[in-house]
Design goal:
alpha/beta; 6-stranded parallel sheet; 44% helix
Length: 429
C-alpha cells in the first residue's frame, strides 16, 4: 500500500465527487474518505446527509412525471443555477445554497472529521466544496485544496468569504478560473490543472491513451473517410491508426447517472441494435454503476430480449463504488463510443472518447453539454428509437472518429499528474 501523503476527502453523492478523487488515491494511502459515510461518523451527521441525498435522488427521478415533476425539479435547480458568464462582474455575494450549508456547519457539521484529520497536519484535498467550507470554519491544521469537478461552476464552489479564504483550487480550465475570480477567489489561490482522469487510461506520456485512441479511430472510421482527410494530422499524432483496417465490433458504453436516471435509454439502444449485437457487429456495455436496482433492471431486460446468453451485452456493476470505477475504467480501453448525460464524465472526452450526449439533468449539465460541443468531442443524441440509423450514418461519415480526435486534441488528459506534482512540490512531500 502507498504511503499516505494527503487527506483525500469526497462525498458519496452520485459518482462525480468520488470519481474525481479516485485517480489520487495513491497519495491518499489507497483510500478516499467520504464526508457523509466514514467510520464512526456522528449519527446526526449521517442522518443529515442521508436525508439530503434521498431528497435529491427522489427529485431527479420525479422529474419524469409530466408538468409537476418538471416544476419541482426546476425549483431545486434554481438554487444551484450558474449565471451567464458575460458581462464580467462581481458575483461574490453568498447564495441561499451556501447559507443553508453554513448554518449546519456552525452547528458542528463536519467538525468531528476535520478535528480527526487535523492531527496529522497533512494537506486536505477534497472534491466537494462543502468539505472546504468545513475545513476553514473548523480551523483545519494543514493546507486546504479543492478539486473542481465541472466545466463551469456555480457560486457554491467558491468560499463563503473568498477574500479571507486560504483554500486553493485546482481548476479544470481557464474558464473556471475566470468564474472563480468573479466569485471573489484570489488569483494566487487558483491553479489550472485540468480534470483528474484515471492514470490507467492515460499513462505518464499519454502512451496508454494513444494506444487506445489508435484502435478506436480504426473502429470509428470503417469507410476510411476521416483518415483520408486528416492523414497528415494522424501521421503526426497517432500513426498506428493508419496501418490497419477495422476487424472488430463497434463497442458502445451507455452509462446512467448516480440516481439511476435514463436507464430506459440503455434498453432502447439494446433493442434497436439487437440484430447487430447478435451478428457480433456491436458490443453494448450497460453501466449500472453501484446501483443494484439498475443492474437488476438491465438483467431483466436483457433476458426479455433473449440476449441473456449473448456475450456482446455486458452489465458494468459493482456494489463497491471504488471497485466500480476500476471496472469502468478497464471497460473504457475497448470502448469506441461513450453515451451518457453530460456529468463529470464529460471530461472523459479527453481520453479520445466521442461522447453521445443524453439529455442534461439540471443547469450544471447544460453547461457541460455546451463545453462538450465547443471542444468537438460531444454529439447530441437524436431519438434513441432510431439509433440504428443516425448513429451509423455518423460512423460511416467519419464524424465519430473526428469527435474522438477532437477530444484528444482539445480536452485535457493530464490533470492527475499536474495535481500530484503541485501537491508534492508545495508541501515538500
Amino acid at each position: 500500500m502507498s504511503i499516505k501523503k494527503i487527506n483525500l476527502v469526497a462525498a458519496d453523492m452520485g459518482y462525480g465527487h468520488q470519481r474525481a478523487a479516485y485517480p489520487l488515491m495513491d497519495l491518499g494511502g489507497g483510500d478516499v474518505l467520504t464526508i457523509n459515510d466514514y467510520k464512526d461518523i456522528p449519527s446526526w451527521e449521517k442522518k443529515y446527509w442521508l436525508n439530503l441525498l434521498r431528497s435529491y435522488e427522489q427529485i431527479s427521478r420525479f422529474k419524469k412525471i409530466p408538468v409537476l415533476g418538471k416544476i419541482v425539479f426546476e425549483v431545486m435547480d434554481f438554487f444551484q443555477k450558474i449565471p451567464p458568464l458575460y458581462p464580467f462582474r462581481n458575483l461574490s455575494g453568498t447564495t441561499t445554497q451556501q447559507k443553508y450549508f453554513f448554518k449546519s456547519i456552525k452547528k458542528g457539521l463536519g467538525k468531528d472529521l476535520i478535528d480527526k484529520l487535523s492531527l496529522d497536519r497533512l494537506p486536505l484535498v477534497t472534491t466537494f466544496f462543502v468539505v472546504a467550507y468545513m475545513a476553514e470554519y473548523h480551523n483545519y491544521q494543514g493546507d486546504i485544496y479543492c478539486i473542481i469537478c465541472d466545466t463551469d461552476i456555480s457560486r457554491a464552489w467558491a468560499p463563503i468569504n473568498p477574500k479571507n479564504s486560504r483554500t486553493k483550487f485546482f481548476a479544470p480550465s481557464e474558464k473556471v478560473k475566470i468564474r472563480l475570480r468573479m466569485y471573489g477567489v484570489k488569483e494566487e489561490n487558483i491553479i489550472i490543472s485540468g480534470f483528474p482522469l484515471p492514470k490507467e487510461n492515460v499513462g505518464t506520456k499519454q502512451e496508454i491513451l494513444k494506444e487506445d485512441l489508435a484502435r478506436r479511430i480504426i473502429a470509428l472510421d470503417p469507410e476510411y473517410n476521416y483518415r483520408k482527410k486528416e492523414k497528415a494530422l494522424l501521421q503526426k499524432e497517432i500513426p498506428d491508426c493508419l496501418k490497419e483496417k477495422n476487424i472488430q465490433p463497434l463497442t458502445i458504453t451507455f452509462a446512467v447517472g448516480g440516481a439511476g436516471a435514463q436507464k430506459e435509454i440503455g434498453v432502447t439502444i439494446m433493442r434497436k441494435l439487437i440484430s447487430k449485437i447478435k451478428n457480433k457487429e456491436v458490443i453494448l456495455n450497460l453501466v449500472a454503476g453501484n446501483r443494484q436496482e439498475v443492474a437488476d433492471y438491465f438483467a431483466r431486460e436483457i433476458k426479455n430480449s433473449q440476449l441473456d446468453n449473448c456475450k456482446n451485452v455486458k452489465i458494468i456493476f459493482s456494489k463497491n463504488k471504488i471497485e466500480y470505477f476500476k471496472i469502468f475504467n478497464q471497460c473504457l480501453h475497448a470502448t469506441d463510443i461513450l453515451w451518457t448525460k453530460p456529468s463529470e464524465l464529460s471530461f472523459y472526452g479527453g481520453l479520445g472518447l466521442p461522447i453521445v450526449i443524453a439529455s442534461p439533468v439540471g443547469s450544471q449539465e447544460d453547461f457541460n453539454r455546451e463545453w462538450l460541443l465547443s471542444v468537438g468531442v460531444g454529439i447530441d443524441s437524436l431519438d434513441p428509437k432510431y439509433v440504428d440509423e443516425w448513429l451509423f450514418n455518423d460512423l460511416n461519415s467519419g464524424r465519430l472518429a473526428r469527435a474522438a480526435m477532437d477530444g484528444f486534441l482539445n480536452a485535457d488528459s493530464l490533470g492527475t499528474y499536474r495535481i500530484e506534482k503541485k501537491l508534492l512540490i508545495e508541501n515538500n512531500l
